[in-house]
Amino acid sequence: MTDCHPNSLFGMGNPLLDIIAVVDKDLLDKYTLKANDVILAEDKHKALFDELVKKFKVEYHAGGATQNSIKVAQWMIQEPHNVGTFFGCIGKDKFGEILKQKAEEAHIDAHYYEQDEEPTGTCAACITGDNRSLVANLAAANCYKKDKHLDLEENWKLVEKAKVYYIAGFFLTVSLESILKVAKHASENNKLFCLNLSAPFISQFFKDNLMQVMPYVDVLFGNETEAATFAKEQDFETKDIKEIAKKAQALPKVNTKRQRIVVLTQGKEETVMALGDKIDTFPVLKIDPKDIVDTNGAGDAFVGGFLSELVQEKPLDQCVKAAHYSANVIIRRVGCTFPEKPDFN
């Protein structure tokens, strides 16, 4: 049993149904996809979703980066249920019903804004070896509205109950005003606001939105490719991941009561953490490449593990340990799925 209360961890993002398939290089080439990337679907990708279902063996899993992380955190915590709250937008359709059911099974308190103009969003996860190329068709997820959902009294009360907030950078393309409202609330009340760089395209094409939120960020997550792109876009003039972490840590911050923590992962290489002038590195858990089934969701699981300890006010090295454990479990399985109970202490 933890010292957590229901709704103490809040997440908001794009709820998507993942359509996962092991594919070949020809498919990647046909749709000009990089082996390891995350992009938003364009018109040329519309046929990809149909082709996956017709030609490959697909699995459907509830996804969306933030929602994955909140579910993994809840799985790590186990009891009480509903420690994690999640907000996002879905359609009134079959896929939407699946997402609601999966959220309930994962014991998270999901409150979706449901609308019928757009169908529930999907994400094609094209797996080749230990790479994953993600193509997200946001659809309904892109329709989240602050005034129609976040501002409603019963919903905002849930936001106020939380002490740790997590939003993946992907949501910067959807509702900047929603993110800023939550980020400012966290900052004004000395609570923890966490953000993920999420994908290189966020740092490149949504730079202004990202930098409007950055002054409120207490914990910044990212992987090595995202960090490199961020550094380039911010003119950090370094490719050294430790230097990038330091410089991101030192960016202006509104709530000066807390120093920003920057946590950067590098796949099988060590994880780098910057806090103040200090840089720590943490080796990841060893895994036989034969045991890696699907790296889709590894980053989300890392964050989920980290948040599960952060919300319990555990030391940072324990947060990283839990993050490495969660990621190690998830890469042995298809999608961001996990066994019934964790084996972590």
Question: What brief labels describe this structure?
Answer:
Ribokinase-like; nine-stranded mixed sheet; alpha/beta; 345 residues; five-stranded mixed sheet
Backbone shape: globular
Order of helices and strands: EEHEHEHEHEEEHHEHEHHEHHEEEHH
β content, as a range? 15-25%
Provide mean pLDDT, rounded: 95
Organism: Amphiprion ocellaris (Clown anemonefish)
GO biological process, one term: AMP salvage
Pathway: Purine metabolism; AMP biosynthesis via salvage pathway; AMP from adenosine: step 1/1
InterPro entries: Adenokinase, Carboh/pur_kinase_PfkB_CS, PfkB_dom, Ribokinase-like
What does this entry show, briefly?
The chain is an alpha/beta fold and 345 residues long. The chain is built from 13 helices and 14 strands.
Can you offer a commentary on this structure?
The chain is of the alpha/beta class and 345 residues long. It is built from 13 helices and 14 strands. Strands 6-5-1-9-10-11-12-13-14 form a nine-stranded mixed beta sheet, sandwiched between helices. A five-stranded mixed beta sheet has the order 3-8-7-2-4. Helix 7 links the parallel strand 9 and strand 10. Helix 10 crosses helix 11 and helix 12 packs antiparallel against helix 13. The longest helix is centred in the C-terminal third of the chain and has 15 residues. It is globular. It starts with 8 loop residues before the first strand and ends in a 15-residue tail after the last helix. Monomer. Its EC number is 2.7.1.20. It comes from Amphiprion ocellaris.
